[in-house]
Design brief:
By secondary structure, the protein is mainly beta. The chain has a single domain, classed as Maltoporin, Chain A (Beta Barrel), CATH 2.40.170.20. It contains twelve helices and 49 strands. The protein is globular. The termini are far apart. The N terminus is likely disordered.
Length: 902
Amino acid sequence: MSKKGALLVGAAMIAAYSTPVQAQTQAQTEPADTAATSEPGGEIVVTGSRIRRQDLAGVGPATVIGAEQIENTGIVNIETVLQRLPANAGFAGNQTSAYWTGNGYGTAQVNLRGLGIKRTLVLLNGRRLVAGGTGANSSPDLNMIPVVALARTDVLKDGASAIYGADAMAGVVNLITRTDYEGLGISVRQGITERGDGSDFTADLIWGIRNDRGGFMAAATYQKTEAVNMASRAPCSLAEVTPGSLSCVNSASTIGGRAVLPNGQQINFNQVPGGNGNFYEPYSAAKHNFNSAPFLNAVSPVERVSTAFFADYDLTDDIEAFGEFLYTYRKSNQIATPGTLRNLAISASNPTNPTGQNIVLIQRRLAEPGPRQFFQETDTWQGTFGLRGKLANNWAWEVAGSFGRNTAVDGSTNIANLERVANTLDTSKCSLAAGAAIPCADYLGFGDLTPAALDYILFTSRDRGGNELATVTADINGDLFRLPAGPVAFAAGAVYRKEKGWRDPDPLTVLGVANTNQQDPISGSSTAKEAYLELSVPVLANTPFFKALTLDGAVRYSNYDLFGSDWNYKLSADWMINDDIRLRGTYGTGFRIPNVPELFGGVSEGNLTTTDPCSRYSTSGNATLIANCQASGVPANYVQLGTTILTTVGGNENLKPESSKSWTIGTVIQPKGLVPGLSLTADWFDLDIKSAIRAIPGSTKLAVCYTSANLSHPFCGDFTRSPLTGEVTYLSAQPINTGREQMNGLDLGLVYDRKVGTVALSVDLNVTYLNKYVVLPFPGGDPIPFDGFIGGGNGGYAKWRGYGVVTARKDGFSATWSTQWIGKATDFNAAPGDIGYRTPNVFYHNAQLAYEINERTRFQIGVDNLFDRKAPYIQSFTDANTDTMTYDLLGRRFYVGFRTGF
């Protein structure tokens, strides 16, 4: 039997969690889903379909996380809930990433299948949300919604472009709010790490009233998280300078200044506070390099207020008006290393130059004023109003309009104006006299920059940006006619959607005179007009081997103002053999246009953590690598100077749309007679994306280039090296249309909910096996494998990932144990035998004890990362010597919580 067949057959006996069964979800979904009015028999609109159904089982592989499970695990934001799921992988924003993602600055995101946040569609009650961040972003902020307002979160792990339109290639996250809350509820939670840092405080408020005609609910969350310094978790940047051992490598941007003489020799100037300002000596990485860790955060502080308001009112017996309004204010901060000046030509005649020769100051870190302070403030709101009702034939309809807007300001202190830096070196313009309008500055040696010079060259940058989303939807659904096996159901509708994004960097940043990431303004919009039709046809019912057989189909027409029109469709089958065994399968197409930041994002430059494969190449034993590095002019004794490389990122106006085909096949087994309360699931998924839009990280580009024969790979044209030092001086990582992305794997699940004696036991387990994920960088190019790899700025793609939650309840007491499993992975860019070449299996265990006095009052105490599991070392790390998008940096941490209601 093939590997795929063995995995599918064995899935019925393996523990994992996916939530497709009506027995488990019905209690949660019926009162919670506001996407449609509940009908007799428990029919509602579920995630992944516009047709009213009784459960999620026939739609496709889905995970449902209810409010009770979130509370039992002590989680206070949706970001953490989703990032623990094994279906989440790759690169996405989170608070333990030092830089988060581009212009996100605290925007919590989800990356289903690791296919990119832009391919995961996030909905609130079935409707799109405006993007978050600080300008022209591609994903909403998951933490816009107060967790206390949520009844459940549906995660559809299947392409759904035919149902929801673009961006749903990898799947859909649908946040479903409560509609049944009455009274006033408050809750507070305080957490802190074992080391006494990273304080995390959350307070929630919810209020609701209802009568026979409708109701109103308001919810608010205040959250404040304190910083955790990077040096407390990773004292320095590590590398295997000497084979078999790790040592600090730090940054080659030194505080004294690293310069090169005309003969190519590198020197470094005084780094001792109060030392000889004219002292210099041969540059030594071990002696002079700068440790960046104390100037970064392992967790950056965030302060957030999120509010939500929901109302519904029966205008008549058949027509209901409803409205939603969200508002979020977020303030977040990060420290960053002092800025670096590069490639300053200082003549021999300059009075600050003690060498007597013309020199080039390659890198000089402006350490005198201290670290830079990045700051961000965002305001996000979205309002929705609509009408829905029933027609005489029991059809249901809905018309709704939404408008959302996100505005933000971000910036940084201690940014150097390069034009003014040049003035301070031009002795025809500057003066050493006290109070001079343009003071001359001495950049050769730490401490030689005077307060007057610093005041002249430094400024605080301020950038502004935002996003807008306007949508109008009209939907109708019901039964067309009856067949012997049941009614033929349908849903149809039309959508108008306009998305807009912009970012206006500081004027000095636009001019390129700011010593920061040079950026161009971003401004762009896209408009879509769409219509869809969905049918559900019952073929057989209550016959031998066919308890029910239902075929579904959906088709969607989309017209985009920038890229023309496209058709997408989806077919699915749901076969209930009997009450215990169910088979299901789907096949569909997808189409995604480049979003605003991908198209119009201003080109910027930044120092990104990047691994240079030519570092110590002469001892690698790889003949191809040695020949290629020599051909690039890299000295035989070259060692990468630091861990970062200046990299160009941003938009690409030449991008084209991408398209996809996906299919799933799975089974649901509920042996009610043998083991009541047990559900086993297995779903094989396969996705093929053509003309895929992807930004290949710099580390990956360098690694692929230098393993190609005679530097023949197209990536070899995306960087340049210094003829003086051999180091990479320019590297492009802008998005491109790659040839193709192919992925397949298996989701496995187990759910058990049953009383064992007097103890109520619930078990939710899920496991994802990633069998294949390859990226073809251009048509006909060699595939780059991602499955089983990690690091290099790509995030983690372990073959195996899992998450399980077990809760036992009795007499008001409950105990919950949850475990996250991240399987073994190989560093994208490391060589066999290197330290960190392959990571081990990593398990994070969490526990909570709680006592519920009554339905509304509850006390809880818990610990996350119970066994203080440290993040493994990864050679091509992003920050903190590991992959911060995958592993936990905080270590063991504790929390206490309390909620009550009136």
